[in-house]
Amino acid sequence: MKICPTCGATVPQEAKQCPECGSELPVENKEWYKNLTPTEVFLLILGSIMLMIAVVAL
């Protein structure tokens, strides 16, 4: 369940607009990785490598 940002009503997950007030609901961006900057990609890869090293060191 989602919450309407305008009126605070509980809204079904698949709804595109609030049944209570009729306002448009924000669309969730499921492809978040497409908006990453090169620096963020580098840090994500570096963090993953460091995590793998830590797990292997145990």
Automatic annotation (TrEMBL):
<dbReference type="GO" id="GO:0006412">
    <property type="term" value="P:translation"/>
</dbReference>
<dbReference type="InterPro" id="IPR026870">
    <property type="entry name" value="Zinc_ribbon_dom"/>
</dbReference>
<keyword id="KW-1133">Transmembrane helix</keyword>
<feature type="transmembrane region" description="Helical">
    <location>
        <begin position="41"/>
        <end position="57"/>
    </location>
</feature>
<dbReference type="Pfam" id="PF13240">
    <property type="entry name" value="Zn_Ribbon_1"/>
</dbReference>
<dbReference type="InterPro" id="IPR038587">
    <property type="entry name" value="Ribosomal_eL40_sf"/>
</dbReference>
<feature type="domain" description="Zinc-ribbon">
    <location>
        <begin position="4"/>
        <end position="25"/>
    </location>
</feature>
<protein>
    <submittedName>
        <fullName>Zinc ribbon domain-containing protein</fullName>
    </submittedName>
</protein>
<dbReference type="InterPro" id="IPR011332">
    <property type="entry name" value="Ribosomal_zn-bd"/>
</dbReference>
<keyword id="KW-0472">Membrane</keyword>
<keyword id="KW-0812">Transmembrane</keyword>
